[in-house]
Design a protein that fits this description.
Largest sheet: none
Order of helices and strands: HHHHHHH
Distance between the termini: 27 Å
Number of strands: 0
Keywords: Membrane, Transmembrane, Transmembrane helix
Number of helices: 7
Number of domains: 1
Helix content: over 70%
Radius of gyration: 16 Å
Structural class: mainly alpha
């Protein structure tokens, strides 16, 4: 498969948009919303809502590779979260904190978000398969 064909298979705009959308989770924490409402509840609810949006978006777009698309979304979100953490933690706390301080944490963030993308992608793929008959 040539690079041109790969670009046609993957909707990079969708991948970018969905990975940025997932920033609602850390944004809620930065703004203190998570603390005000309760961290476990907010985090779990936000993850469920984001997952539903990811699945719905690939379903509505009739994405040709929903599993890989959402795995890429998870990885892209993980990379963005690592970078943003590296940029914001020195500003907010005065010192570098987060995954950039520990190589194992970087791997953990990327693996965890890849798994999140895989699970949501598998659900979306299943729904698309049912729809396509």
């Amino acid at each position: 498969m040539t690079n041109i064909n790969r670009h046609k298979i993957f909707n990079w705009k969708l991948i970018t948009t969905l990975s940025i959308l997932a920033f609602i989770r850390p944004l809620m924490s930065i703004l203190g919303i998570s603390d005000a409402i309760g961290k476990p509840l907010v985090s779990i609810t936000a993850t469920i809502v984001i997952s539903i949006i990811w699945i719905a978006a690939v379903y509505i777009k009739q994405d040709s590779q929903p599993l890989l698309t959402l795995v890429f979304v998870g990885i892209a979100y993980g990379i963005l979260a690592i970078v943003i953490s590296g940029l914001l933690s020195p500003i907010l706390t005065g010192q570098l904190q987060g995954p950039l301080t520990n190589p194992f944490a970087i791997v953990s963030v990327l693996v965890t978000n890849s798994i999140w993308g895989f699970i949501t992608g598998a659900i979306a793929a299943g729904l698309l398969k049912v729809k396509r008959g």
